[in-house]
Specification:
The complex is a heterodimer of chains A (316) and B (729). With 316 residues, chain A is an all-alpha fold. Chain A has twelve helices and no strands. Chain A is globular and about 65 Å long. Chain B is α+β, with helices and mostly antiparallel strands and 729 residues long. Chain B is 25% helix and 29% strand. In chain B, helix 1 crosses helix 4, helix 6 crosses helix 8 and helix 9 packs across helix 10. The N and C termini of chain B lie far apart (77 Å). The chains are: A mainly alpha (316), B alpha+beta (729). Chains A and B meet through helix 2, helix 3, helix 4, helix 5 and helix 6 of A and strand 23, helix 9, strand 34 and helix 15 of B.
Chain lengths: 316, 729
């Protein structure tokens, strides 16, 4: 069994050879996001395009406009939120489906990357990945029902008449932290279960989930390390984006009518490219997390079985 | 010359300061020639029973020319006696989740509160106790016990006086409606049998005399006459006490410690006690707090001599929760800002003392005002950009002016204090602190600040400690305090007229909107129509003319008309006695080529024909191509008000138009070589009550770039959302 640090380094090497998987994940989710945001685009365009308020929105945000839009468009905001939620519900099985292809790529590093192979792997593991997704959702429900709601309600009850709001806050904060840790633990277990399936161990999703649970508990510190270290890389990208995006320069460029007519669209194009680079980076770290977990898992096992063999076992 | 004036005014301030006594001594001189009520009271708190036993002698003066055959008293605490009181009944206005819903789940009988008159008699005269009957003038609820009537054996003659001796017992409720106890913390308000207000013909617009003594409803507040309170309070030694008025003495014996508080010219007396308070007193020294240039600015705006702008020194006491020691300076600074800016605008705070109470968590007593005492409220972590505890402190302090000094009837016209305080608080906060964080960007999405932590997840971890404003540490969108209520206003604007009995609004939110948000916005709109200087003079005049009196909406309108020299009745008719929304829009802009003659014209006694083709050709060949431009402006809402319209042409020229705004639409037509490129109705947003600012302007050319920018941002954040969802799978 390798150290967590070594597994992470191996994971980052692996992901360099599985770039195509990153591209597929990135493109699929971008497409879903473009569709999910379309009604909002059309809604605000129709409501505002002939108003001078559009200038305020180009160079910033107007609370007055937001009030106008929310009040004069009935349930539009709710409909947009519902549509995004529906697209999010679609995104979950789509990502579960693609997980098989990504992890399958780690099995085939010696082979040339082909889309056909990628999607064949997706199809090969699809049902088990989808069942695992449902197991994950059931686990989330348990966390929210018993830790967030159950324990939260108990803490509410116990602290109701505490006059000191500092101690009450700490008690509530502890529940919040526990909820977040529980969710992260569920994620980690599910990912190792996905790896087990593709690695060729175990035939069913239930067996994979339970074995993965035992695997994670038995090697908790290292499992957490290989899960958390690359994941934090993706979060760090988001933080960097929040810190360095020069919104004041962007807004100045967009609001300056004396500039050439192509400049504003160019600025927006650059913004879009910049944001998508961040997203690509996040997916890169996402795949790196899987790869690190894969390396760690592999180091505890004999060499992986071939995909055909594991597929045959699954079919049997 | 200007410098000389500043120096002169500065010197005047310096001269005034030394003669203003430090408010560690009782210096208040009554402004009321003949107080209607004079209470001389003694009360003892029994913490084990959560009960107060008290006795008072009330001297009540009949200020009218009526002979009064009976007396009415409020027994407010009986609102918390059982579920059949009018307060507790689930009438339409109360059919919403509030603190009562949680309160009802508390087990045991200790939480209930009640109040009774043990004995009432005329001093050296008849025992009136057997003559007590319950009255329910608002809703005929025979089970309500919050008002009693006492038939007198002999009527009180015009300008006569009656002296009553009253023994009473008050059982305090577990606090949930801003009175009662929470552990060993007590906020004792509306706690003794309190005489109603007898209004003679002419008082508050009445044509015939009668008692104004309403039952306590869920969302109404109070109404009482001005007078003198001389109160001895006995509490267990070790309790720290704060109360209305000036503390004249403190005496300890075996039964506890007795404090004497005294105040003239107030219409209520409230107090608080707890062994846990941290008591800090500082002096508001107006000579140090107010700069000479600020006085000069006020004299200029208000048209008053500097001597009239002078404030008073006030002894400010803060009763702080031990876990809130980090808020001490912020509470004091907020109270001092209130004393300063309210004083400069509306006249000096006249009393010697001010007590600010910081309530414990979950006590449901925060944000309430009483004469010379109010309750603030904050979490221990007030946030970087939040106005907490500043917002509630300045607001509740504002009630010292609107409710305290100008004593409107809060039952019947709640807007007259809450609306004025909303308007005035916004002014003070903006002057002292700038704009607040009204919206936060959460992952790029603007979310209203107050709803940021009200995420509808079960037991969201932070809810149990109130709104810890974590969001403000990430990002905020600042918005002028004056317009912060527009969203709520629009959602409930058509529910009710603004001027209405407090218990007759359609819903709790309608009460909130029509008492706070809507009048706040309406008064700012009024200011936009009158101008800031005139409005400042209106407010000052109204405050000064109606101090220690009971005005109505009509009285305020009369002051507006008198000071502004304009008839503004239309404004109040549209926006105070009506529930219509205002919405003006630029509906269309048409630019049509103005061709030459086309058709048949009488010229030189004969009919001449001009062909269309010829006209088109001539237009094409001409250097100056004239256009006929038509701008159509519509009134989409029910309410109307005069509005300005700005029309911009392609050469940059702007034409200013005016429209009385009465009919449903109007058109402006222009002919000339330049096309109209855009038009704006109400360009300066005078009419803050407009339901849609976005349609106030229209450009000929559509702009889609802004939508692309937001689309790009949304795509990014939706991708991040899906990224998180992807982890779940």
């Amino acid at each position: 069994m390798v150290s967590a640090w070594k597994a992470v380094r191996q994971g980052f090497k692996l992901v360099r050879r599985a770039r195509s998987a990153v591209w597929v994940l990135f493109a699929a989710n971008m497409l879903l996001a473009i569709v999910a945001g379309l009604p909002i685009y059309q809604g605000i365009l129709n409501f505002t395009s002939h108003s001078m308020m559009s200038r305020n929105l180009l160079t910033g945000f107007s609370v007055d406009w937001f009030t106008d839009f929310a009040f004069n468009n009935g349930a539009a905001l709710e409909q947009y939120a519902q549509f995004i939620m529906v697209m999010g519900l679609i995104a979950m099985p789509v990502n579960a489906f693609l997980a098989g292809g990504v992890l399958g790529r780690f099995q085939r590093l010696q082979e040339r990357s082909r889309l056909g192979t990628f999607f064949r792997d997706c199809g090969r593991y699809a049902w088990r990945m989808l069942w695992l997704m449902l197991v994950a959702l059931a686990c989330y429900w348990v966390v929210f029902r018993f830790v967030n709601a159950g324990l939260g309600k108990l803490v509410d009850h116990v602290t109701l008449y505490w006059m000191n709001d500092r101690t009450a806050f700490v008690a509530h904060l502890a529940v919040g932290v526990l909820v977040l840790l529980s969710l992260a633990f569920v994620n980690m277990v599910i990912e190792f279960a996905q790896i087990r399936i593709v690695y060729g161990e175990g035939s069913g999703f239930v067996e994979s989930f339970l074995a993965s649970l035992g695997f994670c508990i038995g090697r908790l510190p290292r499992a957490i390390a290989v899960y958390v270290i690359p994941s934090l890389g993706g979060l760090a990208l988001l933080v960097i984006y929040r810190l360095v995006t020069p919104w004041h320069l962007i807004h100045a460029a967009l609001g300056d009518s004396s500039r050439a007519s192509y400049e504003a669209p160019l600025v927006l194009a650059l913004l879009f490219i910049g944001q998508q680079l961040v997203m690509f980076g996040r997916y890169w770290f996402r795949v790196a997390t899987w790869a690190s977990e894969w390396s760690f898992f592999a180091s505890t096992r004999s060499p992986a079985k071939s995909p055909n063999e594991s597929g045959e076992r699954a079919a049997a | 010359m200007r410098h000389f004036c500043a120096v002169l005014i500065g010197s005047l301030v310096a001269c005034l300061t030394p003669v203003s006594p430090i408010a560690s001594a009782q210096t208040y001189q009554s402004h009321i020639e003949h107080p209607i009520v004079q209470y001389k009271m003694s009360a003892t708190l029994y913490p084990g029973m959560k009960t107060i036993k008290g006795h008072y002698v009330l001297t009540w003066w009949n200020h009218t020319d009526d002979s009064i055959p009976d007396l009415y008293f409020h027994l407010y605490l009986n609102a918390f006696k059982n579920l059949d009181s009018t307060f507790m009944r689930r009438d339409p206005i109360a059919r919403e989740h509030d603190s009562l819903t949680d309160w009802l789940t508390i087990p045991g009988q200790d939480k209930w509160g009640w109040e009774q008159i043990d004995k009432i008699q005329i001093v050296n005269g008849v025992d009136l106790t057997p003559l007590i009957t319950y009255a329910h003038p608002d809703d005929n609820n025979a089970d309500d016990r919050t008002v009693v009537r006492i038939q007198l054996p002999q009527p009180i003659p015009p300008k006569g006086t009656i002296e009553l001796s009253v023994d009473f017992t008050s059982k305090l409720p577990r606090a949930f409606a801003r009175t009662g106890y929470d552990g060993d913390y007590y906020l004792v308000s509306q706690w003794f049998p309190k005489i109603g207000v007898y209004e003679g013909p002419g008082d508050r617009g009445r044509t015939t005399g009668g008692w104004n003594c309403h039952q306590l409803h869920r969302y109404t507040e109070f109404y009482a006459d001005y007078g003198t309170y001389d109160v001895n309070l006995t509490v267990p030694s070790g309790y720290i006490v704060g109360a209305t008025g000036f503390q004249r003495s403190q005496q300890k014996d075996a039964g506890g410690t007795t404090y004497n508080f005294y105040q003239q010219d107030v219409h209520d007396f409230a107090w608080t006690a707890s062994p846990n308070f941290k008591k800090i007193t500082r002096i508001f020294d107006w000579g140090k707090e107010v700069r000479g240039d600020e006085v000069a600015r006020c004299t200029e705006i208000l048209g008053l001599p500097a001597s009239d702008i002078a404030l008073r020194n006030v002894s400010v006491t803060l009763l702080l929760q031990p876990s809130h020691r980090n808020l001490e300076d912020r509470y004091f600074r907020a109270a001092f800002n209130g004393l300063k800016y309210y004083g400069l605008r509306f006249g000096a705070y006249p009393y010697d003392t001010l007590t600010v109470v910081d309530p414990p968590r979950n006590s449901y007593t925060s944000g309430m005002e009483y004469p010379t005492l109010f309750v603030g409220g904050s979490t221990f972590w007030p946030g970087k950009h939040e106005f907490q505890p500043e917002g509630v402190t300045v607001h509740e302090f504002g009630h010292q002016f609107w409710y305290g000094l100008v004593g409107n009837n809060e039952f019947e016209e709640p807007w007259l204090d809450e609306g004025f305080v909303t308007y005035s608080t916004a002014k003070v906060l903006e002057t002292a602190y700038g704009n607040p964080c009204s919206y936060h960007r959460v992952l790029g999405i603007p979310v209203q600040a107050f709803s940021w932590l009200s995420v509808p997840l079960p037991n969201f971890p932070f809810v149990g400690v109130g709104s810890i404003p974590v969001g403000t540490y990430f990002s905020c969108v600042k918005l002028p305090e004056q317009t912060s209520g527009r969203s709520e206003y629009l959602q409930h604007a058509t529910d009710d007229n603004l001027v209405r009995n407090g218990w007759q609004y359609r819903s709790r939110m309608s009460y909130v909107v029509n008492s706070y948000r809507r009048p706040g916005l309406s008064l700012v709109t009024l200011e936009q129509y009158l101008g800031p200087t005139v409005m400042a003079r209106v407010m000052r005049t109204y405050q000064q003319e109606w101090r220690y009196r009971h005005p109505t909406t009509r009285d305020f309108i009369d002051v507006v008309n008198k000071v502004s020299g304009r008839d503004m009745d239309w404004f109040f008719q549209q926006f105070f006695y009506n529930s219509n929304l205002a919405d003006y829009a630029v509906a269309s802009i048409w630019n049509e080529p103005r061709y030459g003659h086309t058709g048949i014209y009488d010229e030189g006694g004969k009919k001449t024909y001009y062909s269309r083709q010829n006209a088109l050709r001539e237009y094409k060949d001409s250097k100056q191509k004239p256009y006929r431009s038509t701008v159509t402006v519509r009134r989409l809402g029910g309410a109307s008000a005069p509005v300005d319209v700005d029309v911009r042409f392609e050469n940059g020229k702007v034409v200013h138009e005016q429209w009385d705004g009465k009919y449903r639409w109007t058109q402006f037509t222009y002919e000339g070589p330049n096309k109209v490129t855009s038009a704006v109705v109400d360009p300066s947003h005078k009419l803050l009550l407009d339901a849609n600012f976005t349609n106030n302007s229209r450009t000929v050319r559509a702009n889609s770039l802004f939508a692309v920018k937001w689309y790009i941002r949304w795509i990014f954040w939706i991708e991040n959302l899906f990224f998180a969802a992807g982890f779940f799978s």
